[in-house]
């Protein structure tokens, strides 16, 4: 089964939304955009793992079990103090519950932690899309000076001194000692088990018409019509996986925290941002940090709208702590373009506009957004093995 297999609209859906299609104009949203249920995640050919008869990854796969341990393993970080799970905790929707993600000591982070849930389906990882797949994301986070600050050589040496890991890497990958590239493969295999395809929305889309509340159904009609969310949030992930500038307001911590400013400016130098831009910029440049194209200033990857109930705060900088705040932001026409004067190009999306939603309509839209979350996902923390006894 294709992981993003299109689920055609049921006849009842066509009837339910007929008023939407009649009243919406071509400028409101692309008529070809649809909402779809989610299937099994893709498994790359160079990092295979066991799946059940429906294509869902199995938790008892030795590679997944190893990846789970490494996900919780703080000895991958520079000073052995932080693990993937510290910033992607199941207590906070596999994020960290903060507006700005935790940073490595003596550094500051200026972006929100994206949830790991359903990351297996995404074409690009991180807010600026710099990692094309989970394996790259795992390495990028663990070795970033802002996040894990780990050294890959030191990681291998530490793991080689832990007999249980040596045995597990040999069983899974056939190597005598742990190899750096296999660390990311194992973590990615575990992360491909952290998916959610059984939500009220998914049930509704495959024919269980009672799975969503009346408010959620009304919110879905608004999502596709008057609110026009489907312009950017479509398909099974409820994301076009593209990059847009919608004028999200700055997080005040970005400008006031010295460590954050120092780290941000250091990253600009490392990313070879031109000096004239570095001297003027006062906010996150987004995709521009990767492309150096002025048309990409302030653009961030469209987030998936799944698992929102558990993964607040929202936006690339955690600017909003509730879905109600997010809906109000869009209802007011989103924010201003902060980059036209800086790069000489207007980058704010022309798709965002005031929505003129009533209080009831905003409540219904929130109800629909909540329907894309199922039961909270919980993961038991593994017992991590000790170093070898050198006595």
Could you characterize the architecture of this molecule?
The protein folds into 2 domains: 11-40 and 197-250 and 294-370, Cytochrome Bc1 Complex, Chain D, domain 2 (Orthogonal Bundle), CATH 1.10.760; 62-191, Cytochrome Bc1 Complex, Chain D, domain 2 (Orthogonal Bundle). It contains 17 helices and 2 strands. The protein has helices at residues 11-16, 18-23, 62-71, 84-87, 134-143, 152-160, 163-173, 180-191, 200-205, 214-224, 252-256, 258-270, 275-280, 288-291, 323-331, 340-343, 359-370; strands at 243-244, 300-301. α5 (134-143) crosses α8 (180-191) and α10 (214-224) packs across α17. The longest helix has 13 residues, at 258-270. The protein is globular and about 70 Å long. The protein starts with 10 loop residues before the first helix and ends in a 21-residue tail after the last helix.
Question: What is shown here, in short?
Answer:
The chain is mainly α and 391 residues long.
From the 3D structure, determine the CATH topology of the largest domain: Cytochrome Bc1 Complex, Chain D, domain 2
Q: Structurally, how many domains make up the residues? A: 2
Q: Rough shape?
A: globular
Helix-strand sequence:
HHHHHHHHHHEHHHHEHHH
Question: Helices and strands in order, then pairings?
Answer:
Elements (H helix, E strand, L loop, with lengths): L10 H6 L1 H6 L38 H10 L12 H4 L46 H10 L8 H9 L2 H11 L6 H12 L8 H6 L8 H11 L18 E2 L7 H5 L1 H13 L4 H6 L7 H4 L8 E2 L21 H9 L8 H4 L15 H12 L21
Antiparallel strand pairs: 1-2
Helix pairs in contact: 3-8, 5-8, 10-17, 15-17
């Amino acid at each position: 089964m294709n992981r993003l297999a299109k689920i055609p609209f049921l006849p009842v859906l066509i009837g339910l939304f007929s008023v939407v299609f009649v009243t919406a104009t071509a400028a409101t949203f692309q008529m070809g955009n649809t909402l779809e249920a989610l299937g099994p995640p893709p498994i790359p050919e160079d990092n295979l793992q066991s799946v059940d008869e429906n294509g869902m990854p199995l938790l008892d796969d030795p590679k997944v079990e190893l990846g789970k341990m490494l996900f919780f393993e703080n000895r991958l970080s520079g000073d052995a103090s932080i693990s993937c799970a510290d910033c992607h905790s199941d207590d906070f929707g596999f994020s960290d519950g903060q507006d700005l993600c935790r940073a490595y000591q003596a550094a500051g982070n200026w972006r929100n932690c994206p949830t790991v849930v359903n990351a297996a389906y995404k074409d690009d990882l991180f807010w600026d899309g710099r990692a094309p797949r989970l394996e790259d994301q795992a390495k990028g986070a663990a070795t970033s000076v802002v996040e894990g600050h780990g050294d890959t050589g030191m990681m291998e040496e530490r793991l080689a001194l832990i007999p249980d890991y040596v045995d597990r890497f040999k069983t899974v990958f056939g190597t005598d000692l742990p190899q750096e590239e296999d660390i990311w493969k194992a973590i990615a295999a575990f992360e491909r088990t952290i998916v959610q395809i059984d939500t009220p929305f998914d049930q509704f889309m495959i024919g269980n018409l009672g799975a969503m509340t009346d408010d959620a159904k009304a919110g879905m009609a608004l999502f596709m019509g008057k609110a026009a969310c489907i312009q950017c949030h479509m398909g099974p992930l409820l994301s076009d996986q593209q990059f847009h500038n919608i004028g999200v307001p700055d997080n005040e911590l970005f400008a006031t925290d010295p460590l954050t400013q120092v780290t941000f400016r250091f990253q600009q130098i490392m990313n070879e941002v031109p000096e004239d831009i570095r001297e003027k910029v006062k906010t996150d440049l987004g995709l521009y940090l990767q492309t150096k194209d002025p048309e990409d200033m302030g653009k961030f990857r469209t987030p998936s709208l799944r698992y929102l109930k558990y993964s607040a705060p929202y936006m690339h900088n955690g600017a909003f702590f509730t879905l109600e705040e997010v809906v109000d932001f869009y209802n007011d026409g989103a924010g201003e373009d902060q980059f036209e004067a800086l790069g000489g190009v207007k980058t704010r999306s022309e798709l965002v506009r005031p929505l003129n939603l009533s209080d009831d309509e905003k409540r219904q839209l929130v109800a629909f957004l909540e329907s894309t979350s199922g039961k909270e996902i919980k993961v038991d923390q593994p017992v991590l093995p000790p170093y070898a006894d050198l006595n």
